[in-house]
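re: ur question from yesterday

yeah so i grabbed the chain u mentioned. its 296 aa long if i counted rite. heres the sequnce exactly as i have it in my notes:
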Amino acid sequence: MKGELLDPFLNYLAVEKGLARNTLEAYSRDLNAYLEFLEAEEIASFGETSKVTVMAFIRRLKTKGLSQRSINRSLVALRGLYRYLSQEGYLEVNPLEDMELPRLTPALPHVLTVQDVERLLAQPDAEGPRGIRDGAMLELLYATGMRVSELVDLPTGGLNLEVGFVKVRGKGGKERIVPIGEAAMERALVYLERARPAILKGRENPFLFLNNRGGRLSRQGFWKILRQYALQAGITKHITPHTLRHSFATHLLERGADLRFIQAMLGHVDISTTQIYTHVNQEYLKKLHRQFHPRP
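ran it thru and got these structure tokens back, copy pasting raw so excuse formatting
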């Protein structure tokens, strides 16, 4: 039972959090080592574990001579796993909820250029129902910076095309209002009028975006769609649904948007989470300096 929960968690990290393959592989090794430890301790389920169990595992890693960085990574992976299990209802209590994690330098997020985004958004077929749906999803995701889970959970009533905003239900059930531009509004309107009825074929579904059978679109389903169009657009860099969220924030910051405004749009509780994009912007400025300054 314990092992069966790892694949959904790692898939969640890939699709929802946009973690790179190398990070996912490292987390997989760390978590499988934890499962082996639980088996050796004859602990049958995550519900039987506690903070004491995790600390015993960490002591085991130290006796094996692992570096502090590797141990810290294991702690981060375990904290994420327990949070996921709690959110998904597999655990009633998260034993690591109050555990302090070591501060690590966050990796800079992967970001598309504006030109990359333009090529990506131009890929879906504007005539068929699927292409119209895909174009509306991509445009709306880039226009709002929504998480992919927020996009696929969006009800039809969450989109207000008269005023030009979307009501997003984020983490912890908190709602936020995010404005959308004309390009996203136009594609969303065509989708609602032409494509969605064709996909539904007389059936009913409360969710805005649907799969090809008229059911609820999954996060994994959207990721497959995104990867297909990225290949068509010739985008070779690592891309996930979260890449569009990162690109949304970075492009706003590059054009002078206030960090507090971006924080509200993304639904970040703490502005320190949003400040990662200032580092991305600094890297962008350094790149421009190297490219155009006469003195290298």
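noticed a couple things. The longest strand covers residues 165-169. also The domain at 3-87 is CATH 1.10.150.130 (DNA polymerase; domain 1).
anyway ttyl
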